[in-house]
Structure formats: C-alpha cells, structure tokens
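note to self: the first set is below, dont mix up w the second
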Amino acid sequence: MLIIEFLLNIAGATVLLLFAVKMVQRGVEQAYGPSFRQIMRRSHAKVSATVFGALLAAIMQSSLAVAIMVSGLFGSSMISFELGLAAILGADLGSALVILFLSLDIHWLAPLMLLVGGLLFLKSETPTLKQIGRIIMGVALILIALDLIRTNVSPLRNSSFLPGFILILERDFLATFLIGALLAFLLHSSVAAVLMFVALVTSETLTLMVGVSLVLGANLGSSLLPIWMTRTMPPTARQLPLMNLLIRGGAALSMVVIVNRTSLIGLLPEIHAGQQIILTHIIFNTMLLVAIPFSRLAGRCAEQLLPEHKSSNEDIPAHYRSVLDKEALRSPPLAMACIQREIHHMLLIAQEMMQPIMQLFEEYDKKQSKNILENNKRLNDAFDGIREYSSDLSKEITSRGRSRQLRNLIEFAIAIEAAGNIVAKNLLPLALDRQKEGIHFSAEGLAELESMHDRIIANISLASNVLISRDVDIARQLVEEKSKLSRHQRKSRKRHLKRLAAGLTESFETSDLHLETSLAFKEFNSQIATIAYPILSREGKLLHSRLVDKD
C-alpha cells in the first residue's frame, strides 16, 4: 500500500506540474500571442531574434510553443531561416533560465499568488487581466507541485534499494539519458521534466551525475517535440525543427558522453547539487548559441534534408483531393466525420490564403497572388463537393439532431467559402492597387493592420479547435476574440481619422485602402467565428437579441 500511495502522490504532483505549466502557457498565448507574433515578424537581426525568442520562452515557460510559432512564420515566408533558427535557440535558453527562478525556495509565495491570481481571474471584466490572473495562478501551482514532489520523494533517501538503483543509472548513463528524453517527450514540456529532475536531486533522491544525464536527455526530448508537433506542416516549415533537433539533440548526446567519461562536472562551482544541474542546463543551452553565425549553412543543409515539394510543371495548379467517401454514405456518423474532415481542410486552405496577405501589401508578388487564386478555386471545389455530398447524406438521415448538425456544418462551409472570397476578391485587389499607385501605409496604420492580421491567424486556429472538439469554452473564447477584433477595428478606424485630421500625408493617400482592408479583415474574422454560435446556442450561452426589451 505504501508503494501505491507513493506512486499516486508522485503521479498526482507531476500532473499538477504539467497542468500548471500549460496553464501559464495558455494565459500568455491568449493575452499576448498576436503581439508576440507581430514583434517576431519585425525582427531583422539575429541578436534581436535570439533575445526575443529567449524572453518569449521564459514568459510562456515553453520553448515548444515558440518553436511551433516560428516554424509557422518561416513556412509562410514571413521570416528567414537565419532569424527563425536564432529565435528557436534563444527560446531553448529562455526555457532553461526560467527553471532557475521556479526552482528557488519561494513556495511560501504560492498562497498569495493563488489569492491574487484567483481574484483577477474570477472578478476581472477585462480579458487581459483575466489571463494575467491565469498566469499568476499557474506559477503558484508550479511552486505547489514542486513542493509536493520534494515532500514525497524525501522518504526514498532512507530506502535500501535506492543506492543499488542509482548505481545502475550511473553505470548505464546512456539509458538514463534516454529515460530523460522519453519523460520530456511524454510530458510535452522540458520545463516540467527538468524541474522534476531538479526536485529529485535537491531532495538527494538522485545523485548529481544521474541528474545531469537526465537533464541532457530532456534536451533531446525537447528537441524531438517540435518535430512531432509540426509533422502535418509543409516540408519548408519543418526545416527549422529538424535543424534544432540536429544541433540540440546531437550536442546533448555528445555532452552526456563527455560529462560521464571525464571529470568536466568537477569544474562547476561548489553549490547545491540541484543548482549545479540547473547551471549545467543553462551552460549547455548557452553553448548552442555558437551555431547562430552558421545559420545560413544550416539552412542549406535543411533544404537538402527536407526539400520543398514542387510539381513538374508549376503552371498547372494542384488539383484538390476530396476526403469525402461515397461508401460512407451508408453510415451517417461516418459520413458526417468525412464532411467534418473536408471542412477542416477548407479551413486550412483559407488560412493558407490569408497568411501572406500583409506580406503582399508590403511587396506584391505575382506568384504568391496566383497561389491564392488557385487556393480559392480549390476552396470552391471543396464546397461544391460538400454540398453535393450533403444532399445525398440528407436522404439517409432520420434523426432531427443529426440533421441539425449537418446543417450547422454546411453553414460553416459556406462561411469559409465566403472568407476565401474576401481574400481573393477584396484583399488581393487592394494589395495590387497599393502597388500600382505606389503608396504606403503610415507606420501606425501598418502596425494596426498587422495586429488585426495576427489576431485573425490565431482565430483560425481557434476555429479549427472548435470544429474538432466542439468544446463550449473554446467556442466562447472564439466569440470573445471576434468581439475583441471588432473593437480593435473600430479603434483603428478612429485613430486613422485622427491622423487624417492631423494632416498626415501617408494616411491621406491610403485612407480608402486602410479602411477597406480593416473592414475586410473584420468580415473575414466574422465568417471564421460562425462555427462557435451553434455550440453556444445549444448550451444556452447566447442572447437572443442585443436590443433592450421594451418596457
């Protein structure tokens, strides 16, 4: 019974630690995600990209989230490979630095942070303050989880089997290294894994050498995670995670052999073993920054390992391949799943169309424009297929609830097609007009449009999650984000009119262009958010009217 109780306590504390890390990450993404993407896109130097990657990973407590974001930006040609690699390696260092703070003995702060964070999250009317409250509560829960791990592993120091087990781990350091990699991969967080290893070493449950091998293994596991999370992205977007794996994973494997075969670990200062492990982790990730000056060479290697797929004749548009299965019409649940997959594919096409729009406003590219028009054709073909397939399926459906679900899916497909038309027929011609007239947005106006664009890209991901999960909370978040973007658009319009009144020449030249672009962004976002309304209506989370009732 004691062993079962011990395992349950450790498992519970580990899950709490993982949940707390994800809680902080989600709060930061919702509060500041679009702003971070915008800053990343504006980075033009490797040093600034490295520093920003480190800061973002430290704030989000996740280098994985930064790697995924940067890979998406690189895959959309919004940043160069050199800046992307610098940001990812900086993020690895940032996640190592945050461990130094979280490992401090400040568990006494946890109750106060829970109180402050809880009040902000529960009582605040401002979305940003609510997310700040979520972040503070997450940090508090991390401190509580670490204290639970230290408390529960302390009795192991006096156990009879522990010395023999540690001796096995010390002798087979490669197995220990792989255990650390596996745990970091399964936890989907190097921060959580390393914090757990530090807690075990601090409580003297594990020795310093075992802890170092585990932490170096966690670096390998952490570099494998972006590979796994970006597996569905185009080959170009996966080049950065692959190179990060080769650099960080290869260095971790080399370092674990060097540390265990030499007396290099003896060069560390005479501090507590737990702090020595953290210092080793920081030094290791700092050393990886020497690869940044060679990022151009690394980019060429990545292109050879993961070349971009190109058709034999680029003038022939890629034909759309439907996932609608005619045989599945005999089983309505299976056919509905086919329609949902098809609509999700439509959503990805719409995202691919919207992603390069701001880049086209800065520098119009005929090839990119042609790709958007071809994607719009694919979008229309997909919708025609769904409409025909749904017509056949409706003859097989007898349940009123399933009919309503089918109708909601078709309405969302209509909305996605309308969103694609906004890009192809509104935004694309506006970008072309800007080039023909040779005009430029003011710095303030461009920043406002970029901020709206970043929010839209984030909202497409939210809509995708709603479509797949049908989760009420995510649906509510999507509608809240729609309202925030609408408010942002109204404020942008007011600021633009103030700049006109102040006589700013650039604002006067691009007045119609700015207003039409911001309105198109708002309409696109509104179409994408329609997936949330049936779910919220079903749960009674929507008002019937915004009008005040008559007395």
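second set (the one i keep forgetting abt)
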Amino acid sequence: MSDKNFLVQIFGGTWHLWDFLCRLVIDLVITFIVIAILVAVFGSHRPAVPTSAALVVDPQGSLVEQYSGDPAQRAIARLLGQKQRPQTRLRDVVAAIEHAKNDHRIKALVLETDEMGGGGFLGGAALSDLQDIGRAIRDFKKTGKPVFALGDSYNQSQYYLASMANTVFIHPQGQVFLHGYGIYQPYFKDALDKLGVEVNIFRVGKYKSAVEPLMLNGMSPDARSDWGGVVNQLWNAYQQDVTKARGLKSDALSNYINNTDTELAAVGGDSAALALKTGLVDKIDSEDQMAAAVTKVVGEANHTFRQIDFRNYLQAVTEGVQRAAGNAVGVIVAAGDIMPGDQPAGSIGGDSTSELIRKARYDNSIKAVVLRVDSPGGSAFASDLILRQIELTKEAGKPVIVSMGSVAASGGYWISMAGDEIYANPTTLTGSIGIFGLFPTFQKTLAKIGVHSDGVGTTPLSDAFDVTRPMSVLMQKAFQLDIDNGYQEFITRVAHNRHMSVAEVNSIGQGRVWTGEDAKRLGLVDKFGNLQDAVAAAAKLAKLGSHYSVRYIERPLNLTDRLLIAMANDSDASLNPNLDFSLLPTPDFSGTPWYGEMLRLANSFKVFSDPRGIYAYCFCKPQ
C-alpha cells in the first residue's frame, strides 16, 4: 500500500469518526431540548406552600377578565425579552383569597398594590372589579386572620383595596391620592371642520353620546345629565365602602379631597402625615418595618416575612387536581369590544365567541352556561350573532346565566338580555340601549389640496360609500331608516326577553347608561352578585346539586402554542438576566401621564368595523 492510499484511509476514517461524533452531539442536544420542553409542558415544578405563610396579593397592571391577545404571540414576546403591558386576571385574585381563607397554612393576607394600574391616566380600575376583590378580603377577615396593606403610596383604586385591611401601612414619602370619579374625553368637531372631514352621523336615543365627540365641541346637556348621575352613584358607593371599612364618618373622603390644601398646610406639606391624621392609614413605616410587622405573625424566611405569591399559590393548590367527571357549568368570557369575525382573547368576535357558545351547547357534560360579560359593545351585527347562539343554547334545554362585570352596556347588553337570569354588581355600568351609525367622507379635505372626484353611474347609489364624494340625500335617508329599524329591533328584543312592553324599554333606553343598582330597579337585571353567585345559580337551574365542576370554555391551544408558553414560563426563571434578546430598543411610555389616555383613544377606533356601519357601543369608562 502506497503512502498516499494510507493517508487517504487515515483521513477518511478520521472524517467518518468526526462526522459520527458531530451527529451524536447534535442528536443528544436535540433530545435534551425536546425532553426539557416536554418536562416544561407536562411536568412543570409545582410550588410548595409553606406551613406558615402570608398570601401576598400584588396585582400587576390592569385588572382584566381574560388576558388579551394571542397567547403564543405573548409567549414569543416574553422569550425575546420584549416588555408587555402587565395584566392580572380578576378571577385569579378572588379565587386565591377565597381558597386561602380556609387554608391553615396561610396565616395572614398581605396586599401590595403599588404595581396595580388600570384604565385612565390616573391608574384607575373599575369599581365593580375592586368590589369583587373587596368582598373576598372581607370574607378572609371573618376567619380572624389579619390583613395587612403595605404600600409606598396609594392611588384611588389601590386605596380601595388597602382600606379593607386591618392595618394600612404607608411609606414616609407616600401619599393617598383620591379624586372622585369623572368622565372626560376629547371632542373633535372643530378639528374635523378644519380638516374638511364630513362625518355623516345617524343615531337613535337622545342619550346615545358615543358619537358626540365627532359632532360637538363638548358634552351635550343630555349626556351631562346622564353621566353626572352615574359618576355620582359610583363615588357614593366608593365612599360608603371605604368609610365603612375604615370606621370613618360618611363625609370623611369628600372632606379629605375638598380641604386638601388647608389640611396639607397644617401638617407642613407631609402627605403621609395627612393620611395618618385623617384616619386613612394606620402606620407610617419604612419597607423593612412593614415587613417586620408581618414577620411577627407568619415567621421569617430569606430575610423577610415567610410568604407565597397568589399566582404561585393558585398553581400549588390547583395543579394536579383532577377535573371532576360528569356534570359541569361552562363559563364563557366575553370581554372587550364586540367586532365581526374571529377575534383574539380580550375582544369579542361575532364568529369566535359564537363558536365557544356553540361548543358548550354540544358538549353533553356541560349542563349549564354562564356568560361573563365585560363589554361596552360594538358591532350590532356581531352582537346579534352571539345573541342567537344564546337563544339556541336555551332552546337546547341548557340554562344560560349572565354575569355582568364592570360594564355590559349597549352591545354588551344586547348579548346579555336573553339570559335566564342576569347578575350584576350595583356599580356595573349597563343599559345604553341605543344605536348609531357613522360614515365619514373626505371630499372637502381633498379639495383643500386640489383633488376632486367626478364620474358617472347607473343609479343614485352608484357612488354609495365612496369616501371621496359627499353622501347623497337618498343614502342619508336610507341609512337613518336602517338605524331606526335597528333600534326598534333592539328594544323589541329587550322587551321580549325581559317581559316588558316596548314602550317601557324605550323609556329607559334612548342610549341612557344605568348603574347596576338602577338597572335592577328598572328590570334590566335580576339580581346582585358576582361570578361565583352566577355559577351557583346556573348549577341550581340545571339541578346539579353540589356535585359539579366549573369549566372555562376557551379556544384550545395547539401543541406549538403550549410549547411556546411553557418555554416562556420557564425562561422567566432560568434565562440569564444579563442577556437581552431584543433586536431593537423598544421605547416604554407606560409610565408617562398621557400614555394610557392616548392608548385608550386609539384602541377605541378599532371597534368601527361593522359590515353595515351600525353600532351598539358606549364610551363608558369613568376614571
């Protein structure tokens, strides 16, 4: 054998060995990754509940009925290190507190609300949602276990929860900022006139104020009267709850706000001292002193009080629990604006939400349905699709109970009215039974830059819905007749479902917004109660006794979604915090005063997607 052939054999054998080793390493790596993912999905670590601990309830961001957006996209964003708007599910907070009250391992409840935000630039949350949590806190206190509120400062929503505690702490540099309730929004008439935009508006109901920002420069007298009554009822309810919890006089909060300047001057401008003087808080302490007070009750761990976060607590007490076989009450969450088609979580889709209801109807193990509504409405067409599925579910012999969250108005009421029973909180915003349509045209805007539209057509409607041309008188009349018919259909259906006359519904309709307290008196809702009350009512109507499970009917996750979510959950704890996967810097404006209001305004325009341009919508988010 020549030296050349020998070298070829040597190098050839080495190459085959190297190739084998590389393939082996790659296979091992892939196998390891697959095993890690499967473990993350199917065998994630279950948190342990200490034998003596405080349950820490620390809501992050907005309180919501369901997480908004596509779950896989949220998971990808987390994997890439992109900042997302924090959200906390209302039902998770309530469930954790309710379970903990009878758990002997949980010795105390700690409320940390510094990171809780919500709608409006003042960081407000809906009073109805706060009251749901407040009821759970009061039930917890009945067991004799102490409740502590630990806060640097408190805005109005944060303070509502803190006021339910036995002991309210505040940092020496903190303040309690209360402001009451109000509803404010920008009006665009002058701006639209200057731009030459002609907005053709059609509505029924003198209180249907959702379109007023496009036709006026300020609130109409009817809208002012309507909303003045609503915000006063909300503020009275807030004051009543807080003063009762704190043992204060009924006018204590109003005096605190109205006399802020003189009272603050009397304590040398010390906001924390003013909160203590007026009885809003119990102690002014630093963070370590606050923690020490809790430690005396539950013991110490890791240089602070022994604790478990409510999210981990829920996972610990629910993971591995077998779903009860047989009878179930299905809960469907309808939260957000109502729009046609298939919509992600956080919005209500005419097709997607209808499909969830249909799924519950054909599931033989689901004996009753609870529709949890938290919506200001939107597309009349999409609302009607959902209503029809509720009617079909009732015809199939399954009871349907509606549970209203913070708001179930206009289209939100449309999808609610057929429930066998309707539950609401006294501070739920509902009603707003009215219809409007709008169609903007831009012929004057284009004329300002020398652009004009002209042509020929075979009928007077040939240029209908051409935004470069003025809306014809014929089209305007037809549109208004369509809106009038839609309103008549709305109030007729309400009358049928609520066993009222059309005249009665019309008298309380006209687009007027009512609180749950008024709505019950007027016959628009049946009972006061939260989601748990509605579930119990559904089980009772279905004659399930006490042996039934509660199942949330949601769009199923595919394997890819589950893998992504599991990887994201795992990455939160395991990724090196010094690594940044963001390809480009993302500016974060969430802490700026104007961000929340501008985001709310921008999102409000997404709802205008009805195929006929007809809407049952309410801009009803007091702050």
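remember for set 2: Residues 152 and 612 are 50 Å apart (CA to CA).
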